Amino acid sequence: PGSPTMGVADLAEENPEREVFRDAVSLAGQPGHSAPNPHFQGGSTTLGPGSFDPEGLNTLHEPVTETIMRDLRSIYEKLRFVMMPMKASEDGAPHRLKDWDLWGPLLLCLGLGMILAAEAPSSDQASYAFADVFVIVWVGSAVVTLNALLLQGKVSFFQTVCVLGYCLFPLVVAAFCAMLMRIDWLKVFFVALGLAWAASASAGFIVELVPEDRKLLGLYPVWLFYVAIAWMILLA
Prior knowledge:
The protein is an all-alpha fold and 236 residues long. It has helices at 8-14, 16-28, 54-57, 64-83, 85-90, 103-119, 123-150, 157-166, 169-181, 184-206, 215-235. Helix content is 69%, strand content 0%. The chain starts with 7 loop residues before the first helix and ends with a helix.
C-alpha cells in the first residue's frame, strides 16, 4: 500500500535489453526483415570467425545419403590411421579417434564374429563364438576405461570402445586371411602380425589418454585385450 504503480513505459525503461529482444523476435517473422542481433550483458552481438555456429552443426535437414557418406568417410579415415600408425603419429592423428563413433567398431565386431562363427564346428559353438566377440570387446573396454581413470587419465567408456574397436581391424584382416588359407603356420603368422599391428596402433592413441609416467600401466590391459582376441582366432 502506498507504493506507486509501475506502467509499461517504466518496465521498458528499467529493462531496455528485454525490449530490444522483443523487437528482434517480432521482426524475425516478417518477410523482408532480418532480425538484429540483440545485445545481452556480457555477450557479443556478432559471431566472430572462431565463434560457435549452430547452423554448421544442424544435420536434421540434410539428405540421408549425405549423412551416410559422411559417416563412411569418417570410418575410412579412422581405419587409415589404424593401418598406418607411424604416419598417423606424425600427423597428430591420435586426436582423430577422440571424436568417437561406434559404427566402425560395430562393423568390425560383426565381421570378426561371423568369421569365427563360420569356422566353428557346430551351430551351438558358432553362436557362442559370435557372442564372445561382443562380450570381450565391451568388458575389455570397461576394464581399460576403469584402469585409465584409476591412473588419472581423461577418457570415456565410448571413447575406449571406439579406439579398441577400430584397432581390431588388423586382427579381423588376419582372421579373414587365415580362414581362406586353411594352413596352420600361415594362420599363426597372420594372427601374430595382426596382433603386433593392433597393439602398435592402439599404443599411439592410449598413451595420449594417460599421464606420461604411467603409460606402461595404461597399455598393459590393452595388450591383454588384443592377446585374448588373437587367442580366440587361433582356437577357431
